[in-house]
Design a protein that fits this description.
Two copies of one chain form a homodimer. Chain A is built from 15 helices and twelve strands. The longest helix of chain A has 16 residues.
Chain lengths: 333, 333
Amino acid sequence: LKQQRDRLQNDHDLNIRLIGLTNSRQRLIQPEGIPLENWEEVLETQGSEADLADFLEQMKALHLPDSVLVDNTASSLVPTFYEGVFEAGISIVTCNKIANSGPYAQYESLKNTARKKGVSFFYETNVGAGLPIVRVLKDLVRTGDRVLKLEAILSGTISYIFNGYQGERTFHDVVQEAQSLGYTEPDPRDDLNGNDFVRKMLILAREVGYSIEAKDVQIDSILPQPCLEAPTIEAFYQELTRAEPHFERLKNEAAAGGKVLRYIGTLEDGQVKISLEAVGSDHPFFPLSGSDNIIAFTTERYRDQSLVVRGPGAGAAVTAAGVFADLLQVCTH
Amino acid sequence: LKQQRDRLQNDHDLNIRLIGLTNSRQRLIQPEGIPLENWEEVLETQGSEADLADFLEQMKALHLPDSVLVDNTASSLVPTFYEGVFEAGISIVTCNKIANSGPYAQYESLKNTARKKGVSFFYETNVGAGLPIVRVLKDLVRTGDRVLKLEAILSGTISYIFNGYQGERTFHDVVQEAQSLGYTEPDPRDDLNGNDFVRKMLILAREVGYSIEAKDVQIDSILPQPCLEAPTIEAFYQELTRAEPHFERLKNEAAAGGKVLRYIGTLEDGQVKISLEAVGSDHPFFPLSGSDNIIAFTTERYRDQSLVVRGPGAGAAVTAAGVFADLLQVCTH
């Protein structure tokens, strides 16, 4: 905001004022605007003890026109307030996936309330961080295209692991490397279980128009049962070593056909499944590298050749950029 | 519009009225709305002789709020009226590249007038038809990212030709096939000369912030001089056969290094060049197929791994979809 202030003012006649700030420790509301130059210091010295409910009530009580709440948390508490925020005529921009990937009824209710109150609800960064995915899908749907199939790799961590599982390296070593680079949760199984991937596929399926729940997603585990059941992380890694012949067999079978392993989420005929697939060089997911995300939209209009978006789908800078782009979108509404 | 009417009304509270229509033969303005069911018939039977200047004057005189002019032509006449349309407080959505790829001063003036009058000017389909390219670039720039490099293949025809120039087939035969499939202009040199590609690169470079003119673009011709100079299409094809050793040498040199030929537009350090390159399997443009377009955005935030968009970048259905998406964007502004 600080860096782009002049440009937004000059090029887009946009003047975005930062009125309130809260983290888990402190909160501050200054209707005249919190200085962008030293907001951290101001929050520290002039803020009072954090209290989310009270913070949001104060925000609503200001009755400022064109207000936007930006939820940059992954907290499950914040989304419980969304409905009330919309009711107060305030838009929401968020990278938080919780609201959109919870029960369908809640998702639907939020959408309806936002529409009823004429406010915006933008969450491009729920899927693939700053990559243009949710908006592309929205545009396809609202211009009347029919989605035939979505195929996606939406876990940077799992992507990194399968892109790196080549040559002489064991699956164990690739997972361990990903962990040492900080790409995984403390327990790598929290990534490898695919739960986050399920949330993202759910959000996309709902955007297409399916009233689908997490339990409807058919997910094939990457990990054999003993790896999942290992009581400690250390034990998990031991089981992973034991499971190497399993992974090696999958890899070699794929390689024999000139293919590579990819953990792919698919939406087709209203069904979402996530499974390990061997794909050949004619498949758009074949040349993936690093921790890239990728998605292929196959629709009535993009039938013979899909629309494909690819790139880093996680990280602070690209997520912040995506949230910022959403915010600018709301501001020009 | 007809097909999506109910959905737009119900889901987005949008009611888009078609007030005026003109093609090169007839024109019609009906402030109460032209029926979407049989507009062709209504234009035919109730329209008067086409007169663009008068049509636009009538449109302005209506002083309707939230008006949008949609220019679906490739005409160089229509853009000469854009400035006046903006002055009248009317937004423009267009797939027409002429205005944005003409003299920079004209481009800048249009942008300034639209901004001054608070109206929208959307032209996503200027580059890659319905693919999300212009908007992605806009979002990167206005959220403060720094574009380090753009690499793109933005000619479906040339893409098709080089993707098909493999194995035993001659360059001549691939070009002839592309022509017989209707992928090229009547004189295939109108595609192969890259002029359309230049226009698209120009638009992207200007979106990044460079005041660049067509003459600043460094373009390497695909075709040897005799092919360019051949007086007839027939003579051109004869020269193309004579030039086969030239193309074959390029192809074989590339193949010897495991590479393929791609005609790539690059923007770097404010310089645009378009040239034939041999790219290896590690390059994102290696696996391109059919008449796909592709673009890779390398920026400060997408530095190690680019943001890549790929898919069909021409055709009536996807272009119409892109224009429609732009129109909806204006309507929610």
